[in-house]
Amino acid sequence: MGVEYQKELDMEDYRYGSDETKVLSDSDVRRCGDPSSQIGRELLLTNQNIVYTWEIRKLIGHGARQSDTYPLSHLKMVDGVAQAKYTEETYSAKLDLFFIGGTVSFEFRKDSKDSSKRAVAQWLDAISRQLTGRPSEEAAKLRKTIFGVEMFAGALKGTIDSFTKTFSGRDLDDGSAKTVTSKCVGCRAPLTGRQGANVRCRYCDTGQTLQ
Predict the structure, then answer these.
(1) Which pLDDT value is given to residue 201?
(2) Are 166 and 196 in contact (CB under 8 A)?
(3) Is the dihedral of CA 204, 205, 210, 211 positive or negative?
């Protein structure tokens, strides 16, 4: 039996539910197993669904866009862990989602394999946080295979330490600012830094000011 999903036709934009919000999206994605004539346009994660928008390739113009919706509530859970995994391809990485009724996979087509892995890790974390409130252990393992990721973490800390002024010009190391922890306004992931600093969430790329 195939994966059950809700299909909506001729959609230019996904219609959000009254209590539904966008968490993450990516346009460099293709659903595995689709025919070559089918072009992926966007993979969207909301707090309730995973939505894949696609269209049929045409010689002239664009085909009507269609969206397949996969409810997050249908994703399998084992021992409190969301069943979302990654698979390495020759030049990219795939996100494998194990739903009740079947499995669907998406290939992230980036300019490098490491970029593809980073994208999959971001999705693994975002999906896990929506379902369990925790980051994905699978994402943590994947990031360890990405070249230079530990070096980047050290460089990022140095950048944050050196970038100590807000847009208002206030020096954050002058003793007037304190370290605070808050939640991302986009995906509710934890954020830590100096109060008043402008930061960007590593999971959903939402810019915000720490309060």
Answers:
(1) 75
(2) yes
(3) negative
